[in-house]
Amino acid sequence: MLELRHLRTLIALRDTGSLVEAAERVHLTQSALSHQIKDLESRLGMPLFTRKTKPVSFTRAGERLLMLAEQVLPQLRLAERDLARLAGHEHGRLNMAIECHSCFQWLMPTIDHFRDHWPEIEIDIPSGQNFDLLPGLTREALDLVITDNPEPLPGVHYEPLFRYEGLLAVANQHALAGRPWVEPADLSAETLIVYPVDQSRLDVFTQFLDPVGIRPQEIRSAELTVMMMQLVASGRGVCALPNWALTEYLDRDYVKALPLGREGVWSTLYAAIREDNRALPWMEDFVRTARDTSFAVLSGIKPALPRS
């Protein structure tokens, strides 16, 4: 009667707060997910959550099943890890690199959690690479790259982790601060603060400014997010960052953030791995841990859609 897929669906519904996003997270259509829940409720003879509430409000029966899911699913995950280790898959190397300056907020707890369960896997994040990261995968100089700019490379697979929205941070007193969103032309008279990377890797250029041929008045770079926020708050420029990277500054009312355009600019973050490593149990577990940790610690992200 009660299956593991039901427990995973209820957890997704609780974490996302909506049927639409829960369906994306468990890779179902919204109608298929609704049918699954209605079928389960019919078997149990009672509702599991209150319809038309946002976020979703669970009934006592739903809360009880969530409690069960929180007990069973981690134990199942632990058993799968133990079985993989017993099968002799416990040794390996995970050299990774990051094309995302603000990723450490979720990546470090991911690594900590992974090390607890796979202590025999050697993990390293080498610094100062003097080569292109993604081609480094094909040469086996790296085993995993976190990127939002997938390139078609032979033997490289891109596992989607989550989607995020790029937002423009401005000072609280900035003339744009009261706008519902910004248009590309609004940045033509601004100093745009960016990370010191090639502009072809920045969504604010590739998805927002470049398509309409608009350039900021000035471009300034800063290494750290906190430095960028200090410059923005003091009125010395604006910057575009992932929504999760701005959460703590918005909560403290340090800056204001606006969508890039009426529809916003959304991107997907990927874990790039070699095809020959893709099926390794510990590699699969690292990707799953990265995805689960991201949803646990970040605000404003959405489930990733399968890459076509």
TrEMBL record:
**SUPFAM superfamilies attached here?**
Periplasmic binding protein-like II (SSF53850), Winged helix' DNA-binding domain (SSF46785)
Q: What is its main location?
A: cytoplasm
Q: Where in the cell is it found?
A: Cytoplasm
Q: Which Pfam families match?
A: HTH_1 (PF00126), LysR_substrate (PF03466)
**Does the UniProt entry include the keyword Cytoplasm?**
yes
**CDD domains named among the record's database cross-references:** PBP2_MetR
Q: Which InterPro entries match?
A: LysR_HTH_N, LysR_subst-bd, MetR_PBP2, WH-like_DNA-bd_sf, WH_DNA-bd_sf
* UniProt keyword Amino-acid biosynthesis, yes or no: yes
The superkingdom listed in its UniProt entry is: Bacteria
Q: Which family does it belong to?
A: Belongs to the LysR transcriptional regulatory family.
Q: What is this protein called?
A: HTH-type transcriptional regulator MetR
Organism source for this protein?
Salinicola rhizosphaerae
User: What is the phylogenetic placement of the source species in the record?
Assistant: Bacteria, Pseudomonadati, Pseudomonadota, Gammaproteobacteria, Oceanospirillales
